[in-house]
Amino acid sequence: MTATPNDDPPTPGKQNRRSFTDEEKLAIVLETERPGETVSSAARRHGVVTSMLSRWRAELGFGKGKRAKLVQVAVAGASSDVPSTPVVLHDLLQPPDGMTVIELDDGRRVFAPVGSDPDIVRRHVIERETAR
Question: pTM higher than 0.90, yes or no?
Fold first, then answer.
């Protein structure tokens, strides 16, 4: 479904903003939930900025409490008759300037400001996750 903006003529001296009905917003947001779809590609397709579509997603309750989706990764040259063991790709993303990596008890890693107390950061993450 392609959303259609109101066809009001532009007012001199003002920007002509597109407006979408609640139903159109929901339809566009639902597109971002499809496998392989991204917020940015849906936004481009409908002529809205990514931040606006992200705001609609938040307003409509999408993405809250969702954990990252993990995918199966095959290691090149690995024997297929050997049971696979989980591989964690540490240091794939480097922390931004002024940030450090804190490893959580379950093996996940988060970025926190340099000098942060790791125990406080871990507690904060647990509290945020259990509050959902």
Answer: no
